[in-house]
Amino acid sequence: MSGAALGLEIVFVFFLALFLLHRYGDFKKQHRLVIIATLLAWYLCFLIVFILPLDVSTTIYNRCKLAVNSSPAESNGSYVTLAPSKQKCFKPWSYIPNGIMPIFWRVVYWTSQFLTWILLPFMQSYARSGGFSITGKIKTALIENAIYYGTYLLIFGAFLIYVAVNPNFNLQWNQLQTIGIAAANTWGLFLLVLLLGYGLVEIPRSHWNGAKRGYLLMKTYFKAAKLMTEKADAEENLEDIMEEVRKVSESIKYNHPLRKCVDTILKKCPTEYQERMGRNMDDYEDFDERQNSYPSEKSLVKLHKQVIYSVQRHRRTQVQWQILLEQAFYLEDVAKNETSATRQFVHTFRSREPENKIIQYFYTPTVEWYWECLLRPWFYRVLAVVLATFSVIVVWSECTFFSTRPVLSLFAVFIQLAEKTYNYIYIEMACFLTIFFLSICVYSTVFRIRVFNYYYLASHHQTDAYSLLFSGMLFCRLTPPLCLNFLGLTHMDATISHRNTQPTAYTSIMGSMRVLTFIADGFYIYYPMLVVILCIATYFSLGTRCLNLLGFQQFMGDSEMTSDLIDEGKELIKREKRKRQRQEEGENRRREWKERYGNRDDSTRNRVVHTDQKESSFSETNINRPLSKYTRSNGRTERDRIELLQDAEPLDFNADLINDDPLELDSGR
């Protein structure tokens, strides 16, 4: 089993990252480089979280083996004996041989840092660029990131000059590398505590509120009102942009040098707008630079960028509106079925997507009623209590993990108790649950936050390339300080535990933070205590109240604006429900008519065909008779009929034909 656990987790984490990226991204429409870069960033961050517990168990085994093999004199030297020398060390099932983990962590860490500080910011600007060629997009991305990269070079250059001038500093390359890592982790820890303080409170509270059906339904109505406003704004913005595209398309003709750029813009427009513009185009006219003023290439680049953004926003709001409608209809069905005497769940509308037969066999209407109306609320309450307990333990440990005598961090107590008995399964499970809960609190906040319309992770393949790349940047910057914070909570970091023991492979890659004592003994110790203040602010919804004061409507039960938006959303849902009911009634009537009169129509059609055959045979027999004396009159009648039809056709208006002389008019006709 040596190394097998590492290989299995590498494969599992890859498919997990691929599944999440498929849920939020669009593999068919988005650029392959954007998909690959985002997948690599997510994969490396998730991999660090899943592999770190294996590093902890391997480190504990190496400490035990070193303590057993070392003499008492040696144990008082470089390493402290954590177990009696006569005790036998059991190798964990997931033991990773020496030399593998340092190389693994070095590759993963520096790759993620290259992505978050260099490659992903460049690809963000490249993805949002409106250039019409690869060279133009690269040029735009370099210009936009010049200030971004220049700031780093300025700070690093000033630091190098200070070190070179000051004789008290004698820094080597390893120390410079450690300072760079400490600077990156400090920035990440600053953002980590902010996101963690929000997630520790909001995740248990959201699950507790998930057990309240009325609360969820009111919040859905509130979201419907806000989303309808955003949807109307997106449609209006798209109409304005398409009007500008139409004007540009009409002004720049087929033989203009910039016509290729216009065609590229038209390909990004929705299909109905492309057809409408195609009908109004007249490319038979040549362009004349002296008579008309044409837009420049820069203005077309700006217009191309606006088209990409407006089309993506319009498509996202349309899909989100349909998803929100399904959610609202389902919550209303749950509210109706709670008082059902038959205890069978009845849906107002049939599902548009075909359900799996296996799910239909086991998840019957009776099972669905018991789960939705009875079991699910209690399950959410129990889960909320468990998550709240974890949150309290995390807050307590964040405030007391610096205390080593006595050990006050509960996570450190759990790990040290398991370390005495060398229960590696318990150690790995405790470490995994701890870091997994911390990751959920931080990463879920990343998925929830929305910076206006520039950064927004929307499910059902509706996230744009800029937001995907930005999320990859955040993950790569937050994961290393998150892992260091976890090692500090469990006292596996020698900087926190103040023990001269063998460090984990991950800590050895990070380097000794003793180079910067004010960061190691100050910021890393006391800044995480700020999570208490952030949790209190989140519990009392201070951020939500501030956003309400600034004009950004948020869901608050005691707000008059919230109640107005709930009523508006309720009316919108009723209107959409009536529209859906009329559609389904029409489909049902057509289906019933087809089932009832389908066979009769077939028999009627057969009878008509039989009658036509008889009439055709009768006409053939009459034609064979001598009709010479009727031939002339029938031909004359046919000619008269043709002339009448010709006279009945409307004449085109022509002013030259209008004359007062009736003779000329008759002769002309």
Automatic annotation (TrEMBL):
Keywords, comma-separated and alphabetical: Coiled coil, Membrane, Transmembrane, Transmembrane helix
An individual GO BP term: adrenergic receptor signaling pathway
Subcellular localization, as worded in the UniProt entry: Membrane
Coiled coil start-end: 224-251
Topological type in the membrane: Multi-pass membrane protein
Primary localisation category: membrane
First and last residue of the signal peptide: none
Biased composition (Polar residues): 618-634
TM stretches of this protein: 6-21, 33-52, 103-126, 146-165, 177-201, 378-396, 425-446, 523-542
Biased composition range(s): Acidic residues: 658-669
Annotated region described as Disordered, given as residue ranges: 576-669
Keyword flag Phosphoprotein: no
Pfam family, one: LMBR1
GO cellular component, one term: membrane
Biased composition, class Basic and acidic residues, residue ranges: 582-617, 635-644
Keyword rRNA-binding annotated: no
Family of this protein: Belongs to the LIMR family.
Protein name stated in the entry: LMBD2 protein
